[in-house]
Amino acid sequence: MNFPWLRVLFLVGWLASAGRRSAYHLWPHVGLEVVNALVVIAKVVEHAALLLAVMVMLARLVLRFRRRS
């Protein structure tokens, strides 16, 4: 049984997206600079997870077509 990399990557991206959307609720407690840093970090993690998920899907597709030929 293979490790479900796609599910993990989508879960990480979803959690980063949720964190980015709800980071502004922390503004009164930690300040605007920290909230902006959290938003930027979450956006980078979200995009990296999505990019890695697409790369894993493409790699699996290429391997499947190579095995058939």
TrEMBL record:
Report the protein name in the record.
Transmembrane protein
Top-level taxon of origin = Bacteria
Annotated organism of origin: Ralstonia solanacearum (Pseudomonas solanacearum)
Its keywords, alphabetically, are: Membrane, Transmembrane, Transmembrane helix
Q: Which residues cross the membrane?
A: 39-63
Q: What is the lineage of its organism?
A: Bacteria, Pseudomonadati, Pseudomonadota, Betaproteobacteria, Burkholderiales
